[in-house]
């Protein structure tokens, strides 16, 4: 019975949560420092010199220390994941808010307050393991719940829709997206001929392509990114009643994007930007959180949605079916070892627990084959489920035998079933009510290689997405299409893409076409193979939840750069620092040189970063304090000028005090309409300090001020 089982996660006296998974991993941890030995335990006498025939002579074959060390090294690499190769992970737990017993019998969703250990891996879909974090991409959001009934893997993504409807197209999609095989370019980018060729010929990919060109593909942080289970699953309760279920992860820190220019530059400046952000937040005790939610639709009531729930290129607007909050995910611990944990973890959408079942989504059905197959190759055989990171925390016993790297030592003669030897009685595990029970769906259809006509609507949700974007988000989308298509070398591909886009929105297609010197042709698109006339009737015309420009969100862990030079006045700075610090916003002092800077009152202000080695890209906002000499030196420093201009161009809040205003004037930034677009200007009046700090906080909470005009005129 669920009630009698212990929590899989417990609080220690220090308040930190130790999960059952953590306890299970502990015996596998190896000391960071110890006597150096060979893998077989022999103490290594000299780790610097190989065995030679004389001090200047050749190496000897006999040197097993050299041979073993080199052999071990030569085999350090395993194949990277065929997609989602670049990723980073963290440990944590999932805590249920209240019982979902009405909908599902899944044990981890029964008792309010129950904590289940998890391991989460975020990843980029397109790039190779050595690519960059901030590229324009769909991101993987894979969660392994170590439940008391076995592992449940929710192998999701940062978009709620996918590019294709049927798994048989997955290799084609991936081959089109990845570097072109003849020259191996481009890395981690969709801006090339083969990807857009595929999209132009597969109108079902239009909706996901819209997401890829939107701000959703440029998250500020994984901690500020939504996740989705994408497919429709099914919840089954103890009476066998089923509901369709779509999973959502909502970040506590809000949903935020970065500017495209910023993302591109960051890919060079700090390719590890997202993994560093996650790692540092956890190290500093700011455990990121997401809320798990589900959209539930009663079986039999799905027809009213205006599209087929089994089609993974579609979402359920949250305004039509609200997301029911289920529980929270907390990531509180970084892995001990990236390879042993993050690289060897094996997620599989086929890992379900009783009470959660698949739907007949043909993309999901194909995935059920692909993951185990991929992992057998990647992790050298079928025994990877015994690796510490993959092992369930509940007891397990199966008759799988042998294979490479068998870690456990199964006892006894029996590895088959039925058998009469183990318990002394003949035993057959079939037909019982325990464990996973598939929903007893009935089928009477003929075997066909064909899609349902209900999958024919390829555009209405792409239009819904477009209509739901703010004006600034629409501009970003248009720019992204222009950028990507301008990189496509074959004119006919560009033309086909914008022809298709007329069926999303004529204005969108025209705007993109204008920059490319092309006129979109709706009729040409409709005449091509693969095009379907069908347009579903959706219950809403816009869905505000699809836009990222929403209300302000918590500012915890945002980073503010404070630009200073000798002679800086720190009166206002101290107050602002204090107000921001109370909200866990970190102010970092940036100056021309490391060390310290003399303030106007003769104190020494310690410098955290120097302008030569940091950039506005790694900050969320900029603060320029007052001080005549300080402002003069900043105006004369090209790096400082660039720093502020770039932050302004990326729509980050900029706050200038007193003489700092000179800097704005020199930059040509119009400070006459302050606040509204996130530029705050203040005289050095002490009475203004606290209100200014609060206004600055509000501007940071809004994250980005995308409405700024004439950004193209900014030289940065
Ligand atoms: Fe997949 C990895 C998510 C469709 C085949 N996929 C992988 C990962 C994520 C997703 C998050 C990385 C897991 C990790 O961190 O280790 N995949 C998705 C989503 C999809 C999707 C959200 C559509 C809704 N995938 C999909 C299809 C297929 C695959 C249709 C094949 C039929 N995916 C794989 C794979 C990977 C993988 C090749 C690479 C390595 C691995 O699984 O273990 O099997």
Automatic annotation (TrEMBL):
A Pfam match: Catalase-rel
Enzyme class, spelled out: oxidoreductase
SUPFAM superfamilies for this protein: Class I glutamine amidotransferase-like, Heme-dependent catalase-like
Cofactor(s) the record lists: heme
Reactions catalysed: 2 H2O2 = O2 + 2 H2O
GO biological process, one term: response to oxidative stress
Assigned keywords, A-Z: Heme, Hydrogen peroxide, Iron, Metal-binding, Oxidoreductase, Peroxidase
UniProt xrefs under CDD domains: GATase1_catalase
Span list, region Disordered: 1-31
The enzyme's E.C. designation: 1.11.1.6
GO molecular function, one term: heme binding
InterPro entries noted in UniProt: Catalase, Catalase_clade2, Catalase_clade2_helical, Catalase_core, Catalase_haem_BS, Catalase_immune_responsive, Catalase_large_C, Catalase_sf
Start and end residues of each Catalase core domain: 37-425
Family of the protein in this entry: Belongs to the catalase family. HPII subfamily.
Protein role: Decomposes hydrogen peroxide into water and oxygen; serves to protect cells from the toxic effects of hydrogen peroxide.
Protein name: Catalase
Species the sequence originates in: Ramlibacter humi
Lineage: Bacteria, Pseudomonadati, Pseudomonadota, Betaproteobacteria, Burkholderiales
């Amino acid at each position: 019975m669920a009630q009698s089982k212990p929590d899989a996660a417990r609080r220690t006296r220090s308040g930190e949560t130790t999960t059952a998974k953590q306890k299970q991993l502990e015996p596998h941890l190896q000391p960071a420092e110890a006597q150096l030995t060979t893998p077989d335990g022999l103490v290594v006498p000299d780790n610097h010199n190989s065995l030679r025939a004389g001090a200047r002579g050749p190496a000897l074959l006999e040197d097993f220390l050299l041979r073993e060390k080199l052999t071990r090294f030569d085999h350090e690499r395993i194949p990277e994941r065929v997609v989602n190769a670049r990723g980073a992970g963290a440990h944590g737990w999932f805590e249920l808010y209240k019982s979902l017993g009405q909908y599902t019998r899944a044990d981890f969703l029964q008792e309010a307050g129950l904590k289940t250990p998890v391991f989460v891996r975020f990843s980029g879909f397109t790039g190779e393991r050595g690519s960059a974090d901030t590229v324009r991409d769909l991101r993987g959001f894979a969660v392994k719940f170590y439940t008391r009934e076995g592992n449940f893997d929710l192998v999701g993504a940062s978009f709620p829709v996918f590019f294709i409807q049927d798994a048989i197209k997955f290799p084609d999609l991936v081959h089109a997206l990845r570097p072109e095989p003849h020259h191996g370019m481009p890395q981690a980018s969709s801006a090339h001929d083969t990807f857009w060729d595929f999209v132009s010929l597969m109108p079902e990919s239009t909706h996901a392509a819209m997401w890829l060109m939107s701000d959703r593909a440029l998250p500020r942080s994984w901690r500020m990114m939504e996740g989705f289970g994408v497919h429709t699953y099914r919840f089954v309760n103890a009476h066998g009643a089923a509901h369709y279920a779509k999973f959502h992860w909502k970040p506590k820190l809000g949903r935020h994007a970065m500017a495209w220019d910023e993302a591109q530059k960051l890919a060079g400046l700090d390719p590890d930007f997202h993994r560093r952000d996650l790692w540092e937040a956890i190290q500093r005790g700011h455990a990121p959180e997401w809320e798990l939610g589900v959209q539930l639709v009663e079986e039999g009531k799905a027809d009213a949605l205006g599209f087929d729930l089994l089609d993974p290129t579609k979402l359920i607007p949250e305004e039509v079916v609200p997301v029911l909050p289920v529980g929270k995910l907390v990531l509180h611990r970084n892995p001990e070892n990236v390879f042993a944990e993050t690289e060897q973890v094996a997620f599989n959408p086929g890992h379900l627990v009783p009470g959660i079942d698949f739907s007949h989504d043909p993309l999901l059905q194909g995935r059920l084959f692909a993951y185990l197959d991929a992992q057998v190759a990647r992790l050298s055989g079928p025994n990877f489920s015994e690796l510490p990171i993959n092992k369930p925390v509940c007891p397990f016993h199966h008759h799988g035998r042998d294979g490479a790297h068998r870690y456990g030592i199964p006892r006894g003669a029996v590895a088959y079933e039925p058998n009469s030897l183990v318990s002394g009685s003949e035993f057959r595990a079939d037909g019982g009510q325990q464990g996973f029970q598939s929903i007893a769906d009935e089928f009477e259809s003929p075997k066909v290689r064909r899609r349902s006509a209900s999958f024919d609507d390829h555009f209405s949700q792409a239009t819904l997405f477009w209509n739901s974007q703010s004006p600034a988000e629409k501009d970003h989308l248009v720019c992204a299409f222009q950028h990507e298509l301008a990189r496509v070398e074959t004119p006919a591909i560009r033309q086909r893409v914008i022809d298709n886009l007329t069926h999303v929105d004529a204005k969108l297609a025209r705007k993109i076409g204008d920059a490319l010197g092309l006129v979109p042709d709706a009729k040409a698109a409709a005449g091509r193979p693969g095009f379907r006339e069908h347009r579903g009737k959706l219950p809403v015309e816009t869905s505000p939840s699809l836009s990222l420009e929403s209300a302000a969100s918590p500012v915890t862990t945002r980073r503010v750069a404070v630009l200073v030079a000798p002679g800086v006045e720190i009166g206002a700075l101290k107050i602002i620092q204090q107000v921001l610090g109370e909200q866990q916003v970190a102010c970092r002092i940036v100056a021309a040189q490391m060390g310290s800077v003399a303030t106007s009152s003769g104190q020494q202000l310690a410098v955290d970063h120097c302008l030569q080695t940091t950039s506005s890209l790694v900050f969320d906002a900029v603060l320029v304090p007052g001080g005549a000499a300080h402002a003069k030196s900043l105006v004369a420093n090209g790096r400082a000028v660039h720093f502020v201009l770039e932050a302004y161009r990326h729509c980050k809040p900029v706050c200038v005090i007193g003489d700092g205003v000179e800097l704005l004037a020199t930059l040509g930034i119009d400070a006459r309409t302050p606040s509204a677009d996130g530029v705050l200007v203040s005289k050095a009046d002490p009475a203004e300090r606290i209100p200014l700090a609060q206004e600055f906080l509000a501007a940071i909470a809004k994250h980005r001020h995308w409405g700024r005009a004439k950004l193209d005129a900014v030289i940065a």
